[in-house]
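re the bet — no i am not wrong, look at it urself. input seq straight from the record:
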Amino acid sequence: QEGDLALDTTKEDLLSTKNDHYRCLVQQILTKIMSNKGDWDLQKNIGCNVSDFLGQPNTREIGERLQERVVSELTRDNLVSPTSLKVDVVPTGKSSVEIFILVAPPGSRQAIRLSFGYDLSENRLVARIG
């Protein structure tokens, strides 16, 4: 809520993202997707629990459930408006999927595009920004 930190290349110092809503939202989405509930001592409800899908078969049903989970967690507590969010889960291998997230924040000219590679057999989640 109070923002995060980024590198300020002009001053070669740390910069707070408190007033940079775009960067702050990107960091909040990354934190939510990459975490499990209970990972954060002070905010136990942060997390998407993608690891719940470990060992599941890479089927259309599992992809839909994973998509529903991501949408549910990103729209929880009004982090992202459901009308500004699009999530797609696409199989990329026998046990791997790519989770594509597109967020069009109100009042912003730039959409946020993130993707996450997830391996259902190894519980490996890799974030890709851009």
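see?? Residues 60-75 form the longest helix (16 residues). told u. also DSSP finds two helices and six strands in the chain. so pay up
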